[in-house]
Design a protein that fits this description.
Rossmann fold, alpha/beta, single chain, five-stranded parallel β-sheet, 5 strands
Length: 189
């Protein structure tokens, strides 16, 4: 889709919404825009939105960096899987996951089995620019963000590629990415 593509009509949006029978789970690298795009997509489709990281922080009553510091990544990933499972059971909606969630075997299998997994992707320059807006990401604290993101992107690609849908988020307005996602969902469903 380009910036000149027309917005879908209310009837087209309603028809797509009616075909979504389970959660749409956005997976991909940190900084790709899963939460921002997910909120806009949920609003347009009139579906509930949830951010797994926010839900984890609420359940734990501490921030993700605090969870990593006090208990380690393994503990965090276990809690993340449980929270995502609970959210998937809630029915149709839009769910943004953390960048490492889909890399975890049990979490990925759960999402692929009970939801619609959509890999939201972006080039490294876009990721670096976006992660700079939100400090405190545990995996970026000990090194150069560009190097870390480049390495993580390469390591995680084989996992993200297992998602049946793949949409690229470019440096422009998130609304264009939302339209690409809607087109991908429409074709896939």
């Amino acid at each position: 889709m380009t910036k000149d593509d027309p917005l879908p009509s209310p009837a087209e949006v309603s028809a797509l919404r009616a075909r979504i029978d389970r959660p749409v789970v956005l997976v991909g690298m940190m900084g790709v825009g899963k939460s921002s795009v997910g909120r806009k997509l949920a609003t347009l489709l009139d579906l509930p939105f949830a951010d797994a990281d926010d839900e984890i922080e609420n359940a734990a009553q501490m921030s993700i960096p605090e969870i990593f510091d006090q208990f380690g990544e393994g503990y965090f990933r276990d809690g993340e899987r449980r929270v995502i499972a609970r959210m998937i059971e809630s029915g149709p909606g839009i769910l943004a996951t953390g960048g490492g969630a889909f890399v975890q075997d049990e979490t990925r299998e759960l999402i692929l089995d009970k939801a619609i997994a959509l890999w939201l992707d972006a080039d490294t320059d876009t990721l670096v620019e976006r992660v700079g807006r939100k400090p405190g990401r545990p995996l970026l604290r000990n090194g150069d963000p560009r190097e870390i993101l480049t390495r993580l992107k390469a390591e995680r690609r084989p996992f993200y590629e297992q998602a049946p849908l793949h949409v690229v988020s470019e440096a422009g307005p998130h609304q264009q990415t939302v339209l690409r996602i809607m087109k991908a969902l429409d074709q896939w469903l």
